[in-house]
Amino acid sequence: MVQKRPIICITCRVNSDENVLSLHYAQAIEATGGTAIMLPQTEDKEVLSSYLSLADGLLLSGGGDPDSLIFNEQPHPKIGRVDPIRDQMELCLIRQALDQDLPTFGICRGAQMMNIAMGGTIFQDIPSQLLTSDVNHSQQGVGWYAAHTIQIETNSALYLAAGATTSRVNSFHHQAIRDLAPGFVVTATATDGVIEAIENPNHTFAIGVQFHPELMWQRHPLAAQLFKRFLDATT
Ligand code: MN
Fold first, then answer.
1. What is the pLDDT of residue 15?
2. How far is the CA of 168 from the centre of ligand 1 (A)?
3. What is the pLDDT along the chain (235 residues), one digit of tens a residue?
4. 150 CA distance to ligand 1 centroid (A)?
5. Distance between alpha carbon 141 and the CA centroid of its chain, in Å?
6. Looking at residue 16, what is its pLDDT?
7. Rounded distance from Cα 30 to ligand 1 centre (Å)
8. Active-site residues: which are they?
9. What is the 64 CA–ligand 1 centroid distance (Å)?
10. How far is residue 195's CA from residue 114's CA, in Å, rounded to a whole number?
11. Which of 107, 146, 160, 197 has fewest C-beta within 10 Å?
């Protein structure tokens, strides 16, 4: 008999007419006991609902910049390439998933999209909009390397995963969460105040992290624990 493994639906990037997902996300899910399914880009909300009906959890992967228009701002000169169809697809998935209390895990862009979907905003470019930042959030070099420190709030699911009030994480983002969506709390910040993790304590598992645990899980217990707790929340 085939053992039931939680099904985790993962959103992906789109390059021209190809759907693209870094294997690291699927490998982290597989190694933690789940089955990864990549969701092809679609604008059909009925299809999206159908995917969620199959899913035991939703994983929002990293990627390009969210379009500023989805949080009612004009595009900053430093905004990168946007993908309006991906934006709409993820807004729809996130709202439905949280409405159903489906475990939802946002990574980098995914954390930002969770915040935007539920009413928050982001800095479109940290170096030009958060002038007090003195931390490099766009590290060079290997992906698993934990380049900067984060401070973790003790009263949080992230703290339970980390088991400590500080940790180090990798960092590949020029944007960050600005105004927090209602119901969410900040659970980790970098030393410059940049928000590195959020969660909604009213849900079974609704966590967004600005770092990339899918690149770190083989070397960093916090990253492995996040995937474990995400999968545990699906059962
Ligand atoms: Mn960072």
1. 87
2. 10
3. 777 899 999 999 998 889 999 999 999 999 999 999 999 999 999 999 999 999 999 999 999 999 999 999 999 999 999 999 999 999 999 999 999 999 999 999 999 999 999 999 999 999 999 999 999 999 998 999 999 999 999 999 999 999 999 999 999 999 999 999 999 999 999 999 999 999 999 999 999 999 999 999 999 999 999 999 999 999 8
4. 8
5. 21
6. 82
7. 26
8. 108, 212, 214
9. 16
10. 13
11. 160
CATH class of the domain whose range is 7-233 = alpha beta
CA of 131 to the centre of ligand 1 (A): 15
User: Count of CB atoms within 10 A of residue 152's CB?
Assistant: 21
Q: HSE, CB side, 13 Å, CA atoms: give it for residue 159.
A: 14
Token pair recorded at residue 60? 């929002």
d(CA 65, CA 234): 28
Taking the model in full, what pTM does it have? 0.97
Burial of 166 (0-12, 13-18, 19+ CB in 10 A): exposed
153 C-alpha vs ligand 1 centroid, how far in Å? 16
B/e letters for 212-227, b = 16+ CB within 10 Å, e = fewer, are: bbbbbbeebebbbbbb
Q: Tally Cβ neighbours within 10 Å of residue 199.
A: 24
How far apart, in whole angstroms, are the C-alpha atoms of residue 196 and residue 188? 5
